[in-house]
User: Fold this.
Amino acid sequence: MSTIHPTEIKLHQASRVLEIAFADGARFELPCEYLRVFSPSAEVRGHSPATATLVTGKENVNITAIDPIGNYAVRLVFDDGHDSGLYSWNIFYDLGANRENYWQDYLRRLAEAGHQRQA
Assistant:
């Protein structure tokens, strides 16, 4: 996928949703919890799929800052202290386009690990 550039990034802190629009017309509403558990950081993704960490307990996490990194990414700062990992435009697009599949896989992995999300 070639690099895609967003036309708008808007954080809705009250609902804990990051809205991002792209030049091709795609618009995604990505919950902060979703962005946190799918962080592109080595802390979450590991250095290979075998070393990835299942992040739990982030139902109420919020984003406190969005720091631009050049013209290709942002660093999200979460209120739980997590601030590593760069969210490139391609990562945002992928997370948006595949949100339902990724989320269902996350819920399956939670269940397999014996974790349950808080209501």
User: Anything to note?
Assistant: The two ends are 36 Å apart (CA to CA). The helical segments are 32-37, 42-45, 89-97, 99-112. Strands lie at 6-12, 17-22, 27-31, 63-69, 73-78, 86-88.
